[in-house]
UniProtKB/TrEMBL annotation:
<dbReference type="InterPro" id="IPR050390">
    <property type="entry name" value="C5-Methyltransferase"/>
</dbReference>
<dbReference type="Pfam" id="PF00145">
    <property type="entry name" value="DNA_methylase"/>
</dbReference>
<comment type="similarity">
    <text>Belongs to the class I-like SAM-binding methyltransferase superfamily. C5-methyltransferase family.</text>
</comment>
<dbReference type="InterPro" id="IPR029063">
    <property type="entry name" value="SAM-dependent_MTases_sf"/>
</dbReference>
<dbReference type="GO" id="GO:0044027">
    <property type="term" value="P:negative regulation of gene expression via chromosomal CpG island methylation"/>
</dbReference>
<keyword id="KW-0680">Restriction system</keyword>
<keyword id="KW-0489">Methyltransferase</keyword>
<dbReference type="GO" id="GO:0003677">
    <property type="term" value="F:DNA binding"/>
</dbReference>
<dbReference type="GO" id="GO:0009307">
    <property type="term" value="P:DNA restriction-modification system"/>
</dbReference>
<keyword id="KW-0808">Transferase</keyword>
<dbReference type="GO" id="GO:0032259">
    <property type="term" value="P:methylation"/>
</dbReference>
<dbReference type="InterPro" id="IPR001525">
    <property type="entry name" value="C5_MeTfrase"/>
</dbReference>
<protein>
    <recommendedName>
        <fullName>DNA (cytosine-5-)-methyltransferase</fullName>
        <ecNumber>2.1.1.37</ecNumber>
    </recommendedName>
</protein>
<feature type="active site">
    <location>
        <position position="215"/>
    </location>
</feature>
<dbReference type="GO" id="GO:0003886">
    <property type="term" value="F:DNA (cytosine-5-)-methyltransferase activity"/>
</dbReference>
<keyword id="KW-0949">S-adenosyl-L-methionine</keyword>
């Protein structure tokens, strides 16, 4: 078992500037824990991400002293661009005091940011597949779209990890979703996963993370049903942003895509996510994607947050990649016999519609047919047969209606039907109804992949500041 060297202190410190060169200045008794006392000497050893001050009786540098409040404080002054070169252009450094010396290193957020970019550049240069991960995976609709979008841009993804609480969804994805074939499944609540120290040590680093956190507390219907004043009041999913951020810290993705209902963007969780990703060295952009703009019959509206590591180009916009003009629902419907048992008068729904209209509630059935050029949003609980869900009219008998089949639902959303192969109608509609319409997100992931290619071809462009320096400038010295 590896023995850890005891730490005697840790703090952040600003680097100064003197005569055009960076300056590292210490004036503190904390140096004494490493044996650096007034009159002692030391050497500076260059490290990959910083320097180490090592006590040495015949060292190149000396420790001076300064009297303050009747006490002699050790003082170290290093004012050399060459000596401090391993720290790069850092404005703030972290200082770790150990018995064997003092480490002066890049702050963790800046070091992690540089590592993500270097790892991504290396894989892009060699043509290696990029590792991906999925949180709140479901049966992998978003994962499948992510792989397709990257493939459109000529980049292959290799999913390493998928996190999903529902064992049935995990089995469905592993058996029927080709992008999940080699993934390691983490089948447990993510808030439990991040408390498992053993498991967290197994989490690999990836280049792309996609996630669709549960929207039960963020959607208007979910809030109304439970009487929530804010999303975070939801007892089961309101707090999941903490666990998601803990997984992000372990996965260290170069880019992150989160999709959710549009109302999620005004939640406290979204603001926490924006701020923490900023402090982790990401550039955050947000997009509201309307499926109709991308040629879909179903106008499902989703919010997407795209976080790219500083150094990567950002996804400023998502444009349609071309769609089939003038498509009607008939092109997506199954060939259902006119006398099939799925046709029904649905008198109970028609009666409810009449009662609702009489009471001024404004709820009405939404009927479609082969000539329809739009389809109302198809929800997770579609198979229960709600009064405002879309139903297909019988081609010859105006009294009869039927539900959309899972295969039709998949085609409307652009989801490969293989992803729901073998599922019950209820399960298939749940997977599809809580998933995305593929076209907008395929375009988004293709644009993200193009950003990766610009990094490959032109190198990193650093547009962000050292967030640590900016946040703590008034508190550290």
């Amino acid at each position: 078992m590896k023995t850890l060297t005891p730490h005697q202190g840790y703090w952040l410190k600003k680097l100064g500037l003197h005569r055009g060169s960076p300056r590292l200045w210490f004036e503190t008794n904390r140096l004494g824990s490493a044996g650096l006392l007034p009159g002692s000497r030391f050497d500076v050893v260059a490290l990959e991400h910083g320097i180490k001050l090592v006590p040495n009786l015949h060292g190149q540098y000396g420790v001076s002293s300064k009297e303050r409040n009747g006490r002699q404080l050790p003082v170290i002054d290093i004012n050399s661009r060459e000596v401090l070169a391993p720290l790069g252009e850092q404005q703030v450094v972290r200082v770790v005091v150990r018995l064997d010396g003092i480490f002066v290193l890049r702050v963790a957020s800046e070091q992690a940011k540089a590592e993500r970019i270097k790892r991504l550049q290396t894989k892009l240069a060699t043509g290696e597949q990029l590792a991906s991960a999925s949180i709140a995976h479901g049966a992998g609709v978003l994962s499948n779209v992510a792989h397709a979008g990257f493939k459109d841009a000529g980049i292959e993804l290799d999913m390493k990890v998928l996190c999903e609480i529902d064992a049935a969804y995990v089995e469905q994805s592993l058996n029927c979703n080709p992008v999940s074939a080699n993934a390691t499944p983490f089948c447990a609540p993510i808030q439990e996963l991040v408390q498992d120290e053993w498991l967290m040590r197994q989490v690999p680093r990836v280049e792309v993370l996609e996630m669709g956190l549960p929207c039960s507390g963020a959607s208007r219907a979910g809030k109304s049903k439970r009487g929530l004043s804010m999303m975070e009041d939801h007892p089961e999913v309101g707090h999941l942003i903490y666990a998601a951020l803990a997984l992000i810290q372990k996965l260290q993705p170069a880019a992150i895509v989160l999709e959710n209902v549009e109302d999620y963007r005004v939640s406290a969780s979204a603001q926490i996510l924006r701020s923490q990703l900023r402090d982790m060295g990401y550039q955050v952009r947000e997009h509201v994607l309307r499926a109709r703009d991308f040629g879909s019959l179903e106008n499902r509206v989703r919010w997407a947050l795209v976080a790219t590591t500083d150094g990567l180009p950002v996804v400023e916009s998502v444009s349609p990649q071309g769609s089939e003009p003038g498509i009607t629902l008939g092109a997506l419907l199954d060939d259902v016999d006119a006398d099939a048992p799925c046709w029904s008068s649905m008198e109970y729904l028609k009666s409810k519609e009449a009662r609702d209209l009489a009471e001024g509630k404004g709820f009405a059935m939404q009927l479609v047919d082969a000539n329809s050029t739009s389809v109302p949003t198809i929800r997770k609980a579609y198979n229960k047969g709600g009064s405002t869900d879309p139903y297909v009219r019988h081609p010859t008998d105006a009294r009869l209606l039927r539900k959309l089949t899972p295969a039709e639902h998949a085609r409307i959303k652009g989801v490969p039907e293989t992803l729901i192969s073998g599922m019950s109608a209820t399960g298939a509609h749940e997977v599809l109804g809580q998933g995305v319409v593929c076209a907008p997100f395929r375009a988004l992931f293709q644009e993200l992949a193009e950003c990766f290619k610009r990094l490959r071809d032109h190198g990193p462009v650093w547009i962000g500041e050292c967030t640590c320096a900016h946040r703590l400038t008034g508190a550290i010295g």
